[in-house]
Specification:
2 copies of one chain form a homodimer. Chain A has 13 helices and 13 strands. The first copy, chain A, has a 7-stranded mixed beta sheet, sandwiched between helices. At the A-B interface, helix 1, helix 2, helix 3, helix 4 and helix 9 of A face helix 1, helix 2, helix 3, helix 4 and helix 9 of B.
Chain lengths: ~400, ~400
């Protein structure tokens, strides 16, 4: 593997796992730009740009639309810890691994967590969530939009309206879906939503866009405290329970991202550049065009896999277009296939978790990687690797089927 | 300021504030490298490289030496929240703004915080800390090594030995000092120490190296819980109180950075590249050579400022070599000077906080920026700007004095 002091020299890869995927070269270029001081007017201008750009990306008018400086789960925790005080009731409808993560984070906030579960590979009927909402009367419903662990996307519009009606806040983890399929914060009555750059936004992991509305703002401000040493004159702490994290305190992040520019952390300059460029690139293509590209790639990949004699996992009506679960055929060693794909072809496909471990591969078509070339190369390589494992697909049919499906759109 | 959709195009800056400063171009280049999958053997190899490189940078044999994916305060919070359970007693000797931050974070962990304070511009006599240690019997002493708010560096060796003797853990925030002056984790009996990339390590903010020893490991493992959905067979949660953060749970981060490679967050790939390159660049120069460069720049800058008729802030015996406080002369508008420095010369110098607000500028000579050219350009620009403010320094004497001091070393 070389020495720790060797020059950094990552080999070429086609990243078709469930994320992170390859960053758009324009995003990589943005990250190589010189740094600016924390309160340089050009940098604070870029912070304002990021707020404006992500309002458009997330289809929201929310003033509070900014970045949490960490990976996707950092923003999940920022939302939870800023909203939830000990004893607050949370309803988490779980349909995959990342639903369990929401429970886990909520429990660490000492919230009272109520869980309903759907079988992996399915989503919830809205009625079931609404019934649970009536039964448990939670302060917060926390829900994953697209769970890469199962490839499923949960429809949100009816749930959002029901949460509003029952006076529950709705948090949505849209890490896997923003940029790859429709995400409508305001139309769907989502109160707080977060995402990450490393999937359909074509950036690196490490910065997490978040947006929230006045309902969340009010709750957070009721818990606002500011650290000693930077207290503005006349500031009085709120009466609500102190938010248990400094780093993830949305009230302080609001002061940092607003005109107050009250010092909190030092904004991660290069990741801010990356986040800005991710949004610019996506909006230049157009949200609808990007979503259509993901749908087309998903159809082409699916057509190819079926032509190879493989079976697609999960409820087709709710499959995310940006990741596809493939049942590992009997007698085939899933990990050996993945290793060969990486070693011989430089193509990464994903393994899986929990009840699906060893049962499916997950093939991502996300963001910059989501294009015809990726689908075709992946199918040809997979066919070759499977042949060596004794699984004989009709030669060449997968790539031809995918090509045809691509054209038919 | 342009539109949100304009191309990213930061203007050239010489960043001589208290950090962030300019990144080494080799670090910027590393961040523009293509991404790798999260468990790609090349990427996990780079993670191992980072662990090895930072052991050398921090002069420690600690196995647990890795990155927290956030800015410097993220690692402070990771240390605090993973160690401190509610009611644990913490002693914080405060000699500047970042000492207050340690108190603030410890209080959010519901620790019982005891504070001793030193005047801004001075450090603690070790005896005073040791007496407080005897009096308060804390579980943890939390201390800033170099506080940029006052430019002071606290000597640590005697305090570390005393903490060991009194069975208290010692946490040190070395964000501002690593790479700019000697930091010896093992020799000084520091149990857990964290830093950031954006000061003397010549990188961007957004990744925070941390190191801790077996004493901390034992305490953290006694609180170890793992999230549902990725529980390994046979895992049993520890009996200690649950760590209140998922993102900052050092026990889970250990599993992610060890051979277990248990999935936690998705490592921030580009920031990992940056962190690796920061350490490589520093070690290629040599720690001693880098420290000497910072001392030389500090002496030259100080000689220049004094030749200009300005006064250096704080106890000279404990001033950090990488940042210099300068008293703002009577009748001079400090903010107007900083604005002119930035607008006319593209040079950033720092303002200050709390009791020093409006009283001093802070001029950084950190990392990549710490070089003869920076000191000379800054002095000439400052002389010019001050002249327009009515403060007449003897023309040209500052830059000549700095040049001479540089040569004399």
């Amino acid at each position: 593997m070389g020495k720790a002091t060797d020059e950094l020299n990552p080999p070429p890869r086609l990243l078709m796992g469930p994320g992170p995927v390859e960053a758009d070269p324009r995003v990589l270029r943005a990250m190589s730009m010189p740094l600016l001081g924390q309160f340089d007017p050009v940098l604070t201008g870029y912070m304002n740009d990021v707020m404006a750009l992500y309002r458009e990306v997330l289809r929201t008018g929310n003033r509070w639309t900014f970045l949490v400086d960490g990976t996707a789960r950092a923003a999940i925790e920022a939302a939870m810890v800023s909203i939830l005080a000990p004893g607050d009731r949370v309803l988490v409808p779980v349909f995959g691994r990342f639903g369990h993560l929401l429970c886990e984070i909520a429990r660490r906030c000492e919230a009272e967590v109520r869980v309903i579960e759907a079988e992996w590979g399915r989503v919830f009927e809205p009625e079931r969530v609404i019934a649970a909402l009536r039964e448990h009367r939670p302060a917060l419903v926390a829900l994953v939009h697209g769970d890469t662990s199962t490839t499923m996307a949960q429809p949100l519009a009816e749930i959002g309206a029901a949460c509003r009606e029952h006076d529950a806040l709705l948090y949505v983890d849209a890490t896997a879906t923003v940029g790859g399929m429709d995400v409508r914060v305001d139309d769907w009555c989502v109160d707080v939503l977060s995402t990450g750059l490393q999937k359909c936004l074509s950036g690196p992991p490490g910065s997490a866009p978040i947006t929230f509305n006045e309902r969340v703002e009010e709750r957070v401000l009721a818990r606002k405290h500011i650290e000693q040493g930077i207290l503005p004159d006349g500031f009085r702490a709120a009466q609500g329970p102190v938010i248990r994290s400094n780093y993830f305190d949305l009230a302080m992040l609001m002061d940092y991202w607003s005109e107050a520019r009250l010092n909190h952390h030092t904004e991660a300059t290069s990741m801010l550049y990356a986040a800005r460029e991710c949004a610019r690139v996506l909006l230049a293509e157009g949200l609808e065009a990007a979503h259509e590209r993901h749908r087309r790639a998903s159809r082409a990949l699916g057509a190819g896999l079926r032509a190879m004699g493989l079976e697609i996992f999960g409820d087709p009506a709710h499959k995310m277009p940006n990741v596809t679960g493939v049942l590992i055929p009997d007698g085939v060693n899933g990990d050996a296939v993945r290793a060969k794909m990486l070693d011989d072809f430089g193509i990464e496909i994903g393994t899986s978790f929990g009840p699906l471990a060893g049962r499916i591969w997950r093939i991502g078509t996300m963001g910059y990687v989501c294009r015809k070339r990726s689908v075709l190369l992946c199918l040809m390589a997979l066919e070759t690797v499977l042949r060596a494992q004794g699984f004989r697909a009709p030669p060449g049919e997968a790539v031809d089927a995918a090509l045809q499906a691509w054209v038919e759109g």
